[in-house]
Design brief:
With 59 residues, this protein is mainly α. It contains four helices and no strands. It is globular.
């Protein structure tokens, strides 16, 4: 597993009932990233740009 996979797994583990974020949209809003970009990243359809990755890592 690489860095990108580690970030993806950490995000996925924080989404769901009883977790920090109830859904992907709330996570994206709080992290300051576009919800569709976050969804595609979590589904392994694309990576994140440097700005989005920076928002996620600082929050």
């Amino acid at each position: 597993m690489g860095f990108t996979d580690d970030v993806r797994e950490a995000l996925i583990n924080r989404i769901g009932k009883g977790k920090r974020f109830p859904n992907n949209k709330r996570m994206a809003d709080e992290l300051g990233v576009d919800p569709s970009q976050l969804n595609r990243f979590l589904k392994k359809e694309r990576g994140l740009n440097a700005d989005s990755l920076g928002h996620i890592l600082t929050r």
